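Morning. Coffee machine broken again, so started the prediction first thing and wrote up yesterday's gels while waiting. Chain of 343 residues, entered below exactly as on the submission form.
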Amino acid sequence: MSMALDLGSSRFRTLRREGRRLVGRQTRTAYLAVADSPAHVRLLNQAHVTSVRADDAHLVLGTDAEHLAVALGQPLLPLLPEGRLPEADPLARQLTAELLHGLIGARGDQSPRTASLILPGDATPGSPLHDFVVHLLNLQGLAPKIITSNEAICLAELGSEQFTGIVLRMGASDAGLALVEHGNAQTIVDVPCGGDWIDRRLAEELEQTLYDHRGECFLDLIGVRSWKHIPERSLSAPSTDADEVLVQAYREILAALLGRFRSAVVRDGTNGARRRPLSLVCQGGPTIVPGFAELLMHLWRQADIDLPVAGLRVCRDPLWTAARGCLIHAEVARPVSEGRHVA
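Came back before lunch.
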């Protein structure tokens, strides 16, 4: 059995094959601090929510924390701010380990034997997050093979195009563009801004705030995310001042990304394979906002990048695309004696 681990800065996702079924699990990489009061303890018990006691609060993890934060009107706190593991925060490391263990489950006869792994920002060996996660997986009996998010998206989306095209990904903590040829990323650029940066920008402009159990003020990022994904709102047709703020935030990230990509393409040169029209595929939560494709194509034409684009498409299931490509990678890595499947 194989497993894909797509560990993003905002969500952890796993995907595995059980018989003929694909089984996916996900959780929010965040926690909620609930006041240690009789009323709140009763609420946690009635909701059958597991918590961890810490100082003057009960800490709720993952998806439970996300749902409870909405109900209580309190801020959700990230475990991996900006896609990094806080080195001086042993509590964050413990909570992250709890989330990962809960997703993978206890080791058993039907446990995965091979695994492929995507890390936030494609963290490399030697980085605190990479070494921490790999160590945890080794303790679970897994020796994961690392794959970049660009490679995973290519495997999931560009099979009919000989695994060649342009991949744009927008995550919570960063965004990237890559020219991929036959499965190998040749030209790669990144910017350290993603969906979280957009949400913070909006919350600041709209003055959306929340207070935690101690009375400390935080930006209301959950409320902003809900507002951002209202179907009637479109990046291609802003109608309010708030809409304009949203469009401008997207413009700044995409313009910076396209500018770097244009320079990289000029630096690397173009060959015959790059002269044919290429598909541009987009993946990640921020890409599903209505009007994203139209805004991106407008900015692409303005950037005058020396690569012909045959068409642009947002991945059919952008939240699970990378995990699906990661599972394909894990299946290919399996010994032939175990049998292989296509995700």
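Residues 20 and 260 are 43 Å apart (CA to CA). Going to sketch it on the whiteboard this afternoon.
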